[in-house]
Write a structure and sequence with these properties.
The chain is an alpha/beta fold and 505 residues long. The chain has 15 helices and 24 strands. It has a nine-stranded mixed sheet, sandwiched between helices. Helix 4 packs across helix 5, helix 6 crosses helix 7 and helix 13 runs parallel beside helix 15. The longest helix has 20 residues.
């Protein structure tokens, strides 16, 4: 018989062992209550429950895992796959006592299910008395539901468990796999809190999991769905970003883009706490322009984060080296971080969480998302992309971070189209275009809007030579540049003459 454990105050919260989930729960689960953790098989109920018990064991508390369906070997195999040490967790499997219970039920005048249910419950509670835990997990309620055979008896049995554990001041997780019918609603009404895990399988890529806190009586929590992943080592929950909770004093100032011509086009440069969208067809150098903004930040001694959805870091390094752009030294120094993202295997919540961590913990001052088209591939639908970006840009603005969004348009010349229109979210929009002049294909750049101040209304031609961007003078002698086939309305202006050795972006 173990010694009597020290119990928490009813007003205290107990950690779930999953940092992101504790954030959603505003510190953890209110202590000494009964909670329902529900989800279909494969959503991560057992993984979360193990985190919950191991956290209690880490704090020196006696904890108990009661398995009504899985064997000890199966549970230990799951723990082994994550590299967990369950030495501080007491395991009790129903299968070990099941045969004895059935034999006793057969010698009784009552219906076997009635005796078996009662004796099963008594056996489980006897184990609780023996261990004296502060945390208990029941995995899962489907076995009790089958033994009960009726919704009324099932509800009474769960109520009995709730009253028993309340008297013992134990925090309890009841796991349920949705194998029942409307009787599930009975447990939801009895439980102090309900947490639901969901899993979906997209047409391509890894499974997507989400967690939702359905209720938590008398306690605040973050509503809505939150992304989660299960990888070797356990579960990670990415709390949905709420930008208003991340207020921070930020310096409002204008900084150089690193190019004199670009600064003139932007009316002096970029303002901190604003977002800039680079729009244009593929091949116009939008990514190279974004890299130039990150390099300009590095030369000021500021950190930048580049999220690459469309190319890997090795290809980017090779391409910039061909242009004579000094990217690698800044990456080696840690001022520029390149992070390749695979949309098919990374959830939007994880992407957002990595950006928040980089800004708040690593001091990143410039964030580049290249491209929004790739970011969209991590979303189930375009509508959610605008919602995610709206919250993310609000957070970055409050932190005084300069955000650069790259959006590739469909088409090469003439009328352009986009799969999703997000230009309204950006504070500034810079548009690039191909156009024909003097028998060659040229590049044109124009600032379409800028909320944070005045900007140049002209269109400039540009090219990329050794060392990066070469910006020309305003194309005041041409008309129809943005259509792709302009006409000269006066003496042709001097265009940027690219070096034949230049490598196009």
């Amino acid at each position: 018989m173990s010694s009597s454990p020290t119990h928490s105050s009813a007003n205290d919260r107990v950690s779930t062992g999953v940092a992101g989930l504790d954030q959603i729960l505003h510190g953890g689960l209110p202590a000494e209550k009964l909670y329902l953790l529900q989800g279909i098989p494969g959503t991560g109920k057992t993984t979360l429950a193990m985190h919950f018990l191991m956290e209690g064991a880490r704090q020196g508390q006696p904890v108990l895992y009661i398995s009504l369906s899985e064997t000890r070997e199966e549970i230990e195999e799951v723990a082994k796959s994550h590299g967990w040490d369950l030495s501080g967790v007491s395991l009790f499997e129903l299968a070990a006592a099941e045969e004895k219970l059935r034999a006793e039920a057969e010698t009784c005048f009552f219906h076997p299910s009635e005796v078996e249910l009662t004796q099963t419950t008594e056996t489980l509670l006897a184990e609780v008395e023996r261990i004296g835990p502060t945390r208990v997990v029941f995995d899962s309620l489907s076995e009790l539901r089958l033994l009960a055979e009726s919704a009324l008896r099932y509800r009474r049995q769960v109520l009995r468990l709730k009253q028993y554990f309340a008297g013992k001041k134990i925090t309890v997780l009841l796991l349920d796999d949705f194998s029942g019918d409307d009787s599930d609603q009975h447990v939801q009404s009895i439980a102090h809190g309900v947490i639901t895990l969901e899993r979906s399988n997209p047409d391509y890529g890894s499974a997507r999991r989400k967690i939702t806190v359905e209720k938590l009586r008398g306690s605040p929590f973050s509503e809505g769905q939150h992304d989660l992943v299960i990888r070797p080592g356990g579960m990670t929950v990415f709390a949905r970003l709420i930008s208003a909770k991340h207020e921070a004093p930020s310096l409002r100032e204008r900084v150089s883009s690193g190019n004199e011509g670009m600064d003139a086009l932007l009316g002096g440069g970029l303002d901190r706490g604003t977002s800039t969208m680079l729009m244009g067809p593929p091949g116009t150098g939008k990514s190279t322009l974004a890299i130039g903004l990150a390099i300009a930040a590095a030369e000021r001694g500021e950190k930048s984060l580049l999220l690459l959805f469309d190319e890997n870091a090795a290809t980017l390094h090779y391409r910039t080296a061909q242009l004579g752009i000094t990217l690698k030294p800044h990456c080696d120094s840690g001022l520029i971080t390149l992070r390749a993202i695979e949309p098919a295997s990374v959830s939007p919540g994880e992407i957002t969480s990595s950006i928040v961590h980089a800004v708040e913990d690593e001091g990143v001052r410039v964030v580049v998302i290249d491209s929004i088209n790739g970011y969209l591939n991590s979303m189930p639908e375009a509508r959610l992309l605008s919602l995610q970006l709206h919250e993310l840009l609000g957070f970055l603005a409050r932190q005084g971070v300069i955000t650069v969004l790259v959006l590739s348009q469909q088409g090469m010349v003439g009328q352009m189209q986009v799969s999703v229109d997000l230009s309204y979210l950006a504070d500034s929009v810079i548009m690039s275009r191909f156009f024909e002049a003097r028998g060659s294909v040229r590049l044109a750049l124009s600032v379409i809007k800028k909320r944070s101040g005045d900007h140049e209304r002209t269109i400039r031609d540009y090219s990329f030579g050794h060392g990066g961007l070469k910006m020309g003078e305003p194309l005041v002698g041409m008309q129809g540049v943005l259509t792709g086939v302009p006409t000269f309305v006066s003496t042709p202006d001097k265009l940027v003459n690219p070096d034949p050795k230049d490598v196009q972006p």
